[in-house]
Design a protein that fits this description.
Blueprint: E1 3-7, E2 12-14, E3 22-28, E4 30-37, E5 40-48, E6 52-53, H1 57-60, E7 67-70, E8 74-80, H2 81-88, H3 93-120, H4 128-145, E9 147-149, E10 152-155, H5 157-167, H6 172-184, E11 188-194, E12 197-202, H7 205-219, H8 231-244, E13 254-258, H9 259-270, H10 280-284, E14 292-294, E15 297-303, H11 304-323
Antiparallel strand pairs: 1-8, 2-7, 3-6, 3-8, 4-5, 4-7, 9-10, 10-12, 11-12, 13-15, 14-15
Helix pairs in contact: 4-5, 4-7, 8-9, 8-11
Length: 325
């Protein structure tokens, strides 16, 4: 008998290699099909409400060929293969033969597609210029056709889809991946309205517009002029920013941070130890000043507005890398 199952966000409906037992209808929420790649996962496809998943094993009972993971709290209707096979037995022999043949052909086609993708594409599905291109499409549609509401900028779904395909000749599944990443980053809200319709809201349009301009400028700089920051350095940024906000700036906007106090208070304030030497890469990159020995301790000078913007943009870059693997 069919049964309803709730799958919390980030939980798996099933995993690669699992023995198949059910086909599922997605009642609500959203899933992604993933494959392990090293220590991470790459997204192969997205599954939305109303779609089927797990149907390919109904005939051959082969182990699951990929993971299926919930991107948000979701609900599925589980249909046991045993019951479905009983229904199939009532079909004419020639119909069952056609269905089996289609299933085998689909599996073979999927294998060939994966081989082509692995031989013809870079490991990085979303290199930086591609991310910025899709964000630029979103900004273009929002600026020209969007409407402002209290919660943000409303993006017309059909206009976004048509523009992505027809004008920029890009795949909509890639745009959907970008949207999912933005949603995970709390920069976008996607509300399912039923029958395939969505309400798409950019929650921080000004930030997204500014980021695209900044990132485009950064990408086209000469390599010798580019300054980049690692994910660990962004973590250091967050600690300095958190601490500096408690300090009043001087008339020039400079805040003097006691690095010893920063280290001593970091575990309590941030939940991780921020060591004095962690500041060295930021000093070398001229984000904060050289360490200054004064009465009362060792200090660095920072201009909060400058490093807040830089930290925000670089956190976005690393978040995109994490969510678009």
């Amino acid at each position: 008998m069919a049964e309803s199952k709730k799958i919390p966000k980030d939980n798996y409906l099933f995993r690669d290699g699992d023995t198949p037992d059910f086909m599922y209808i997605v009642k609500s929420g959203q899933f992604v099909v993933t494959k392990a790649k090293g220590s991470s996962e790459i997204i192969l496809a997205e599954i939305k409400a109303g779609n089927l998943v797990g149907e390919m094993a109904i005939f051959d009972k082969k182990p699951r060929s990929a993971n299926v993971k919930a991107m948000k709290d979701s609900e599925v209707i589980a249909l046991p293969y045993e019951t479905l096979n009983q229904q199939l037995e009532n079909l004419p022999v020639w119909v069952k033969a056609i269905l089996r043949n289609l299933n085998e052909n689909l599996r073979e086609a999927n294998k060939r597609i994966k081989l082509l993708e692995s031989s013809n594409q870079d490991d990085e599905r979303f290199p930086p210029h591609v991310i910025n291109k899709f964000l630029s499409i979103l900004n273009f549609i929002g600026n020209k056709y969007g409407s402002k509401e209290d919660e943000g900028l409303i993006i017309p779904q059909n206009r976004l889809r048509n523009t992505t395909i027809q004008i920029f000749q890009e795949a909509t599944n890639k745009m959907q991946s970008i949207q999912s990443a933005l949603q995970e980053m709390s920069l976008m809200k996607i509300e399912e309205l039923g029958e395939g319709r969505q309400k798409i809201v950019i929650l921080k349009p000004d930030l997204l517009f500014d980021f695209v301009d900044w990132y485009n400028d950064w990408l086209f700089k000469n390599d010798k002029d580019k300054v980049s920051f690692s994910s660990e350095e962004i973590k250091t940024f967050s600690g300095i920013i958190n601490y500096a906000k408690k300090i009043d700036p001087n008339p020039k906007g400079v805040r003097k941070v006691n690095v010893n106090d920063l280290q001593n208070d970091s575990m309590k304030e941030l939940g991780f130890l921020l060591k004095v030497e962690d500041l060295n890469p930021l000093i070398e990159k001229h984000v904060v000043s050289e360490k200054i020995m004064e009465e009362g301790g060792v200090f660095v000078n920072i201009i909060l507005d400058d490093i807040e913007k830089m930290a925000t943009y670089w956190k976005m870059i690393w978040d995109f890398k994490k969510h678009l693997r």
